[in-house]
Amino acid sequence: MNRWLSLLLVLTATPALALAEDWGMGQSNAKIPPSYIFDHVSTPAREITTLAYFSITICAVIFLVVGGLIVYCVVKFPSRGDDNREPAQVYGSNPIELAWTTAPLLIVFVLMLTTVRTIYSIQAAPRPPDAIGVRVIGHQWWWEFRYPELGVVTANELHVPLSDPKHPTPTFLDLESADVAHSFWVPRLAGKTDVIPNRKNSTWIDPHEAGTYLGQCGEYCGTEHAMMLLRVIVEPRADFDRWVAAQKQAWSAEPAVMHGRQIFETTACVNCHTVNGTAAQGRFGPDLTHLMARVTLGSGVAMNTPEHLKIWVRDPSTMKPGALMPAMNLSENDLNDLVAYLVTLR
Amino acid sequence: MAASPIIASDSRTEWAKTLPYKGRVGIYLLILTESSFFSIFVVAYLFYVGKSLTPPFPRDVLSPPIVNTICLLSSSVTIFLAVRALRSGSIGGFLLWWVVTLALGLEFLIGTAFEWHKLIYHDGLTISTNLFGTTYYSLVGLHALHVTVGLTLIFLVTILTLLGHMEGRHVERVDVLSWYWHFVDAVWIVVFTTVYIIGR
Amino acid sequence: MAGSIEHEIALGAGRERVSLPVLGRIHEWVVTVDHKRLGLMYIVGGLVFFVIAGLEASAIRLQLAVPNAGIVPPDSFNRLMTMHGTTMVFLVGMPILTGFFNYLVPLMIGTRDLAFPRLNAFGFWIWLFGSLLLYFSYIGGDGLYGAGSAPDVGWFAYAPLTERAFSRGNSTDYWILSVFLTSVGSTATAINIIATAFSMRCKGMTLAKMPVLVWLAVIVSFQILIALPPLAAAQVMLLLDRFAGAHFFDTQAGGSAILWQHFFWIFGHPEVYILVLPAFAFANEIIPVFSRKVLFGYEVMVAASAAIAFISLSVWAHHMFSVGMTPAGNSFFVASTMLVSVPTGIKIFNWVGTMWGGKIRFKVPMLFSIAFLLQFLIAGLTGIMLGAAPFDWQLTDTYFVVAHFHYVLVGAILFMIFAAIYYWFPKATGKMLSERLGKWHFWLFLIGYHLTFDTMHFCGLYGMPRRIYTYQPGRGLETLNFVTSLGVIFQAAGVLFLVINVLTSLRSGDSAGSDPWDAWTLEWATTSPPPAYNFASEPVVQSRRPLWDLKHPEDPDWNYE
Ligand code: HEA
Ligand code: HEA
Ligand code: CUA
Ligand SMILES: [Cu+2]
């Protein structure tokens, strides 16, 4: 037995040694409840949970009955070594066959109807005219969020207003992809809807509880699929409006960081990033106008602190191997000034 | 040792007669699986009808290849006659119809070649031009490929016959080959309808 | 391992070969068209790839044992994941199952070979070539752009990730070609099996008297003939996209990403039944023999299997519930998906009916079969949960799905493959496998299996997607994943016992005799291992259990059929 124990130790020891830096995400996640799919705070997730419990119950019963029969046979009919006469040969019985064909048929029928009802109530939900609409655009490997009505553009952290169950204010998400297939998933709010290039999909949420909810890309989309995380921040209408107002502000020039800004606009940064009110209008990467208003970096690989920013800009692949942003190899001073500038993008 | 339930089987042969000829079963199965293969290309074609973003579009450049179609379909008749001739033991009649079949098949291939030449050099439609090009060349090309394979086999048989290796007892095998050819023709009917009737 | 088994068979298949030098013996195996040898080569090949893919899985689990571990870098992980899946399905599942059919069908219908022995050999070698091609991609996949080696697109390779724009180099091309070639091989075998079963049955064996295993072999083969071409066709289109500049799945040029998903799953779902029906077939032979009772409801079993095969052609889009189909579309596939449970249930119930009132002997093959029954039951029920579309919107592409399909692929198929190995090894080699080592193998693998795959369900419920090379701490996934990884050690240990068991038994196992299990079908009527020509003289049968008739002249089966 201790042979296995030693193997066990090897298995446990190696990864422990190989543990990589988590850039503060561990602590941050720990403050947020796990995304347990039955822990719903939004109508679609709730209806799914109801259906789930129903089907799980039925399946559990079936398991107990059929599993019970199998176990019964195993316990009841072992051969008692001594006599080797063959047992009575039973070739079949149509009544019995009929019985265990119809019973499942009925169960299936019930399951089917309940499922179809849930499908329609979620997929065919009407879209109220005043509902907030967000264009969600999947990129390898980050999320772009555009609020057409509100004129706001941000990334990786979706802000939506709290929805009062009595008169709900749902948010409708229109899903598109800039490259390959992704899938938008925030377990506690709703099920997955794929984000597919050259196709328009949509889904909706109406969170009843303020707070932060963890989500993640649900369709394999290449190297960093694992780190295509997202967060949904649900806040009371007032706070939400305040956030929108802040997001609408263009960058207000701060003389102190002019050099940093110069570097940003003279290096390739501008080809991929937008900073409203400046020359930077790139669309390939996340909009940085209000970078510091975001909690995380690189769609959730790191907490958004000046130190992490510096590491990121020096070489994104230290945090996110394969990320589509190149290392700019800037001098240490330029790097500091550049980060100083980024830090002013509130 | 071998406790076998065997009453030594003398009359195996009569029993065997009640079972189908394996070559025939084989070719039917091949046809089944090939049909499934073609149907996917047909589905893809239909799925992309009218979805091309850039010209040329089918209606502007395609014209139904009537002559080709007639030749290919009639070749089905001639190969049937060839097999029948062989079954009735006339090698000569067989050879005659067989060669006619070969000729008709060749005509079809050449016709297709001309059509493609026109599309490529006159209308500037290649497989990478647009979705129409992509689906058209792959579907029609796939069929043409099957015609080529069929013709190669037919040609080989012709050679063997000319060398005098063809005998009445080979009829089953020749028949199997003819079934493949009938299938290729049947597929053309589907392709024709898809590409030149529905697709335009 | 391979070499030695084949060697032993060579000894068995005809004493005169003993004198041959090694080279000559190898040459014999290369040029053979004997269905038994080809069958064994398929099985051994499959087992070798099983060990490889299993080791890949072990690497995956090592990386996932703890949150953001840095043992396997992202790209390598994605390759391991893709290779593991592709290998297990096309290089392990398919060959082992075709291998058993190759070996057993002619023996069971009392004939001397398959209908087209050369086609059969062709099928094997094209399969082997395709398989090697897949692993050659580790070397050759580098391609012009130096874009790494080995495919990393996942085993269903969703477009447009597979298009040139997103998948540089040639690794994906190796994946395409390899899968294409292996499916050509399977098609060849399928044609062969059906033709054999229809045209080569021994005297007296009407279709209604064929052993159930042969029936299922026929049904599976039909499914292969209908369901594999869509994959092959899609592969051809993808190749055209990548090499001829076509636009089938090129979303930039108006191509459709969904179309690929449809084509893949039109193949992909039937494929999973192509894999599981042979497992059912083994159960149909093994459970009766070890319960000492005739199979309950022969006709119904065959009909149910046919029904499963038929229905499973119309359920594919249950893999696509989250792509945004219309409510009507979703509802249709919910209905068809859940309908499958009816014929499948019938099979389970009939197996219970077979054990009922029997005298069950708990030999190793039966142990695996019983575990199979319970595990397949659970797997099927989680399948039903996935079939409830809205529930699937939460579960799809999470570890719940991974758990579901390992419950079938491992808990049902792999377990029945093990059962079949213990059951037919004596026939193929003339040596018994050790019961003692076999029990070690069974219990270790069972424990490991449940440690690994039971916990996976909960990873899914706690929001862990599949195909992620790591996960962050603080999301409540640490313990679950650690336990999951622990299980692999036990599974590996179990497999090691199988390897040891095979090697030692070949050398020093008790000799089997022609009919060690006191069984009833024709393969047990000839010597172990059977001579190259299978039967001294062609057998003649009067019922589905010729050896039962022989052993019980007082009341033979034909009185009841
Ligand atoms: C051998 C393999 C095998 C088998 C047999 C099955 C059997 C079933 N599978 Fe599974 N499945 C896979 C292999 C298999 N599956 C694989 C590999 C995948 C993932 C592919 C990938 O994404 O990589 C998958 C994924 C998969 C999905 C997609 C999940 C997703 O990606 O979102 C779904 C959804 O419906 C599903 C459903 C089912 C159902 C309903 C059955 C049914 O056939 C089960 C029927 C059996 C029973 C229900 C139990 C016995 C019945 C009774 C005792 C009668 C009474 C029961 C009732 C009345 C309910 N499977
Ligand atoms: C028949 C099919 C089959 C089988 C048997 C298995 C077996 C196993 N699979 Fe498999 N798996 C798939 C089919 C299969 N899998 C498929 C189709 C996918 C999807 C891929 C994709 O998403 O594209 C998948 C994906 C998959 C994943 C998800 C990867 C991801 O999404 O990121 C994981 C993770 O845990 C996993 C684990 C395992 C484990 C631990 C086993 C264990 O049961 C393995 C046990 C075997 C061993 C541990 C090897 C033992 C060998 C030895 C001990 C050596 C013997 C000695 C010598 C002779 C040298 N598999
Ligand atoms: Cu985006 Cu996975
Ligand atoms: Cu399926």
Report on this structure.
- The complex is a heterotrimer of chains A (346), B (200) and C (561).
- Chain A contains nine helices and twelve strands.
- Chain A has helices at 2-18, 25-30, 43-76, 94-123, 237-248, 258-266, 269-272, 306-314, 332-343, and strands at 132-139, 142-147, 152-155, 157-161, 171-177, 182-186, 190-195, 201-205, 211-216, 229-235, 296-297, 302-303.
- In chain A, helix 6 (258-266) crosses helix 9 and helix 8 (306-314) packs across helix 9 (332-343).
- Chain B has helices at 12-17, 22-48, 58-61, 66-87, 91-122, 131-162, 171-198.
- Chain B contains seven helices and no strands.
- With 200 residues, chain B is mainly alpha-helical.
- Helices cover 67% and strands 0% of the residues of chain C.
- Chain C has 561 residues and is mainly alpha-helical.
- Chain C has helices at 2-13, 22-31, 35-64, 74-108, 117-140, 171-199, 212-244, 257-291, 298-311, 327-339, 341-355, 364-387, 389-395, 399-429, 435-461, 478-508, 546-551.
- Chains in contact: A-C, B-C.
- At the B-C interface, helix 2 and helix 6 of B face helix 6, helix 7, helix 8 and helix 17 of C.
- The structure holds heme-A (2 copies), dinuclear copper ion (CUA) and copper (II) ion (CU).
- Dinuclear copper ion binds next to loops of chain A.
Oligomer: heterotrimer
Proportion of residues in extended strands of chain A:
15-25%
H/E element string of chain B?
HHHHHHH
The biggest sheet of chain B amounts to: none
Overall, the morphology of chain B is elongated
What descriptors fit this protein?
heterotrimer; A: 346 residues; alpha+beta; five-stranded mixed beta sheet; three-stranded mixed beta sheet; 9 helices; 18% strand; C: 561 residues; mainly alpha; 67% helix; 0% strand; disordered N terminus; binds heme-A; binds dinuclear copper ion; binds copper (II) ion
